[in-house]
Design a protein that fits this description.
The structure is a single chain. By secondary structure, the protein is of the alpha/beta class. It has a single domain, classed as Methylesterase CheB, C-terminal domain (Rossmann fold). The chain has helices at 16-25, 48-53, 106-117, 134-142, 161-168, 176-184, and strands spanning 6-10, 33-37, 59-61, 73-76, 82-85, 91-94, 121-125, 146-150, 173-174. The strands form two sheets. Strands 3-4-2-1-7-8-9 form a seven-stranded parallel beta sheet. The longest helix has 12 residues, at 106-117. It is globular and about 40 Å long.
Amino acid sequence: MFNSKIIFIGAEKTSLKYIKQIIDSLPNHFDFSILICIPYIQTMNINFINYFSKDSHHIIKHPEHDEFLENGKIYIAPPSAHTFISNNETFHLSREYTKFYTQPSIDLCLLSFTEYYKENLTAIIFPGNTKDGFFGVKKLKSCNGNIFIHNNTDFKTICDCKCFSEIVGSDNCYEIDQIINVIAKTNQYAEY
């Protein structure tokens, strides 16, 4: 079980079906926020909001600059900027660092949210062909946040769960059903 104010999901497009499973498993009302960060370099032709909203009753949207983070909403980092969180729990969208990081960067986003939420953040990482998220996971581990690395066996990837095991340990690699079960067992769900 975990006690988080926010769940961060970092993934590549090969993991969309797993993220959809997580969204579909959520109750109508939940008392935390979810932020999904998927680098858009390889996914230009996919509208993530439409994909994740299909047959869903949840509020799924791109955050606006200076918008307050709200419980019960699912945010998808926009393709045109890096997504950060400010000290007053508002989103900050920036095109800085575009020379060095794919937009939106899992690492930059996770580092920002870790800095603010520390142990109250849970990260679910779906490794892919890059190590994007590696530094964010390392920082979250040092803050005692919860980390779940998906053990993706469906796709041949350059960086799989083993890439992250030096940081989080090999016992933090989970199948999608295990990740969903952990989320479902939390006391965070609130029926309004």
